[in-house]
């Protein structure tokens, strides 16, 4: 399957969705949130 973006665990998807909708900036250390940052506009805390 080309063009698929792995999104990690389901809980990561729920957390990222909540952060995007509410404007939260999560602080994270794993790469599961990177696709949300790149493709969906999630802003990571620095």
Give the biggest sheet: none
Question: Over all CA atoms, what is the radius of gyration?
Answer: 10 Å
Order of helices and strands: HH
Quaternary organisation of the protein chains: single chain
Low-confidence stretches: none
- Per DSSP, the total helix count is 2
Number of domains: 1
Q: Helicity range of the residues?
A: 40-55%
Shape category: globular
Average pLDDT score? 87
Number of strands: 0
Strand content: under 5%
Overall structural class, as computed from helix and strand content, comes to mainly alpha
- Quote the distance from N terminus to C terminus: 33 Å
Protein name: Twitching motility protein PilT
Key descriptive features of the protein:
single chain; about 45 residues; mainly alpha; 2 helices; about 45% helix; globular
Would you kindly provide a written description of the structure presented here, covering whatever features stand out?
It is a single chain. The chain has one domain (1-46). Helices cover 43% and strands 0% of the residues. The chain is built from 2 helices and no strands. The protein has helices at 10-22, 34-40. The longest helix has 13 residues, at 10-22. It is globular. It starts with 9 loop residues before the first helix and ends in a 6-residue tail after the last helix.
Please give a quick description of this structure.
By secondary structure, the protein is mainly alpha-helical. Helix content is 43%, strand content 0%.
Per-chain topology:
Layout: H1 10-22, H2 34-40
């Amino acid at each position: 399957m080309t063009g698929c973006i792995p999104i990690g665990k389901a809980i990561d998807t729920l957390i990222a969705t909540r952060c995007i909708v509410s404007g939260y900036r999560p602080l994270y250390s794993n790469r599961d949130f990177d696709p949300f940052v790149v493709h969906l506009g999630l802003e990571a805390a620095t």
